[in-house]
């Protein structure tokens, strides 16, 4: 169903067909489609969605559309939506709203929901607590599989997942049991004989990215969240973890290109916000680059005598920057996916050193021959450029691979040690190497 | 359990305690621990793992260790491991082995497993078919919930997931039903009344990255895979999808730094392979950079008259490169996570144009003032550099945002239009703008 069909049915007031078609739609796709409607149509169409599905569709919409809908909802409708949403989605909705709106909305919901939401709203934004939900299945160790299945039958419909169940004694988590285990074992066996006592868990205060990485590592559907006292307070599910991993990777990629990250999507971010996200690093890098300029000034008389020297500056600077960013990118990504660690420092440096020698020699040879041929057999010039290339590439790769590891060790984000910063640092080195060699060879 | 404890227990021949400790370990962690052992210890310890867990631990190990183990296994052991592994893991194991070893191994397994493995081995490496598995629960529409649960009880233990079940009529997939629906509905209801008929599916020939993106979009646990005729041939599970998303993102990030991707991890890739992955793009970019050099040569007399001009080249080149790569990175990542599309072309260009004007004016103003102060009130010089900065930044951001979108439209990977290539292109433009303005202002 494209937007046009939807609008046609709406125009023709063919609500029956409209409802039927929307029933066939996946909530994610439906949310995307509704977001293309204008405010008036949105409210009309949204009210036609089946009640149980509506809260899910609502949770997939953007803040703007949700605000529009909330503005024209009755308090009864708001209560229904908030009560039907999983707590993590409700928290996600309320987090971006002004405090007075949040209070007004919370007035509408049931007492239990309000308490849950309030508790979750208190966790720091990047913590595991902020992405968890409280709708899980709790079992007790003495239950039989039959009793456990019976409990799931009763409360499972309101749980975000029934596929991992939590065995709890006096609010303490003593084990977890999968629905697969419950469904494939004898009904008279007790839960305590099937449950896994060595389970993976996270703390409310853990970084949400670290929590998300556990899903990637262990392939889990849900992970329990414990508070400081070891009591279970919620669970995080894999779909939220995939979202976090994607967001954190985007943030890393942006940081690697010297951009401060935005919460909003590209198109929703204003021009001024975009500019604000980009200018600070550009200013820092611009001033760092003037150091390279100052070094060049020192060698003014060198390129006044041999002006051709200037024409190799871009090639040297670019190649150095590219070599350095290759190394830093490999290390930054390796650290991000936990493939590389500080303990690998020497293996990495030794590997990069050998790689840089090979790369340097190949590039220097190709370029040396090219210069020799193009500039009428000028051996001296060919040698100067070739030697500078090798020196630049070795330095670039050493700087590129070391800085991200140092950053990580100093608890800085390794992603800032990427292309832009490495390029600026390497520029200075390459210009120094180049003019030092040139003044030596040409006795300037 | 650290490696040292394990080795101590092994030394002391305290096999009972060793077995007990290993029983407590998660298969993923156990695999990582075993990979640190030498070949002889590895074989001894591996044989002590509980049989059901062994295949899972095996599937998490690296190719080298698996090869070591296979070399010292009896055919009985090989048969057990291969039969216990999910087909997708078995295929993953065999894919990287020479054909004669594969045939030898396949001789050991049961006929059914062999047929499954052979079929999966035939799918292209980047296809959805290559990451699917064949162990799923199939139901028929006329079953009651009770019968369905009974079937899961019987075959569920061998399925990679029981949480999504597939309703099949004559090999055609007619609907899917979640375990949650089965567990929370009346036992006498028929499957056909609960199943979802509008389900998400993928084709064997779909790109595995596109398949993985569906998991991110819809938050699914498993997606069915259909062949050309619409018959169901397997399923892909979310844990494999997370793996694919991570791998593909790594590949993109490497490509954005002008590195050809390696299958192996950083440390396992040889120095020569590393060099081979990096040299081609460096050579291309190095030669492109000589164009910028050639342009500089044209303005030789300009910087012989005003030598200070040369010292601003690094700052202009770096800033242009950084600005361009900011834009290209935002667009490349936006395209990768399906947040931006070709239809957004004009909104993106218009947004980047306005951003580039703000960024350009701010940077030019700051730099203009700096030059005015540092170079004793040289207004002409300050004007030349400031104007060149604005021109460079506008061009850089335009080039940076457009090229990735064009690449996508031409079915090229947008990731190649990243920092290194953009920098090289922008360099040429910035040098041309700079010297054109300089020669005009200084009448050179």
UniProtKB/TrEMBL annotation, chains A, B:
Subunit architecture: Homodimer.
CDD domains: CBS_pair_Mg_transporter (cd04606)
Keyword tRNA-binding in record: no
The name this protein goes by in its record: Magnesium transporter MgtE
MF terms in GO: magnesium ion transmembrane transporter activity; metal ion binding
Native source organism of the sequence: Clostridium scindens (strain ATCC 35704 / DSM 5676 / VPI 13733 / 19)
Ranges that cross the membrane: 355-375, 381-403, 415-437
GO cellular component: plasma membrane
InterPro entries: CBS_dom, CBS_dom_sf, Mg_transptr_MgtE_intracell_dom, MgtE_N_sf, MgtE_transporter, SLC41_membr_dom, SLC41_membr_dom_sf
Family under the similarity heading: Belongs to the SLC41A transporter family.
Superkingdom in the source lineage: Bacteria
Function per UniProt: Acts as a magnesium transporter.
Annotated coiled-coil segments of the chain: none
Keywords: Cell membrane, Magnesium, Membrane, Metal-binding, Transmembrane, Transmembrane helix, Transport
Locations listed in the record: Cell membrane; Membrane
Membrane association type: Multi-pass membrane protein
């Amino acid at each position: 169903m494209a937007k046009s069909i939807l609008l046609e049915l709406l125009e023709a007031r063919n609500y029956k067909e409209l409802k039927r078609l929307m029933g066939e739609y996946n909530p994610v796709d439906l949310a995307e489609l509704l977001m293309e409607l204008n405010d008036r149509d949105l409210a009309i169409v949204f009210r036609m969605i089946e009640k149980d599905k509506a809260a899910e569709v609502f949770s997939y919409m953007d803040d703007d559309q949700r605000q529009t809908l909330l503005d024209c909802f009755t308090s009864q409708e708001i209560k229904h939506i908030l009560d039907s949403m999983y707590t993590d989605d409700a928290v996600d909705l309320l987090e971006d709203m002004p405090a007075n709106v949040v209070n007004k909305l919370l007035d509408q919901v049931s007492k239990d929901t309000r308490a849950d939401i309030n508790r979750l709203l208190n966790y720091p934004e990047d913590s595991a607590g902020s992405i968890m939900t409280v709708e899980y299945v709790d079992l007790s160790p003495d239950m039989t599989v039959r009793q456990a299945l019976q409990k799931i039958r009763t409360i499972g419909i309101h749980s975000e997942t029934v596929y991992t169940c939590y065995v709890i004694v006096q609010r303490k988590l003593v084990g977890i049991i999968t629905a697969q285990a419950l469904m494939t074992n004898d009904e008279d066996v007790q839960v305590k004989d099937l449950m896994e006592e060595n389970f993976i868990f996270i703390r409310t205060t853990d970084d949400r990215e670290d929590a998300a990485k556990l899903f990637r590592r262990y392939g889990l559907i849900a992970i329990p969240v414990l508070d400081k006292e070891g009591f279970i307070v919620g669970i995080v599910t894999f779909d939220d973890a995939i979202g976090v991993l994607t967001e954190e990777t985007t943030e890393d990629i942006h940081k690697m290109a010297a951009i401060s990250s935005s919460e909003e999507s590209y198109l929703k971010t204003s021009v001024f916000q975009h500019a604000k996200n980009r200018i600070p690093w550009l200013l820092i890098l611009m001033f760092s680059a003037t150091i390279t300029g100052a070094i060049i000034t020192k060698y003014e008389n060198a390129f006044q005598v041999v002006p051709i020297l200037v024409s190799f500056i871009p090639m040297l600077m670019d190649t150095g920057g590219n070599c350095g960013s290759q190394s830093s990118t490999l290390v930054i990504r390796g650290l991000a996916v936990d493939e590389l660690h500080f303990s690998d420092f020497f293996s990495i440096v030794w590997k990069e050193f050998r790689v840089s020698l090979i790369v340097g020699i190949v590039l220097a040879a190709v370029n040396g021959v090219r210069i020799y041929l193009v500039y009428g057999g000028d051996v001296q010039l060919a040698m100067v450029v070739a030697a500078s290339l090798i020196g630049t590439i070795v330095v670039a790769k050493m700087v590129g691979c070391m800085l991200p590891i140092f950053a990580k060790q100093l608890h800085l984000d390794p992603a800032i040690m990427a292309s832009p910063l490495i390029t600026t640092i390497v520029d200075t080195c390459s210009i120094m190497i180049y003019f030092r060699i040139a003044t030596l060879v040409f006795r300037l």
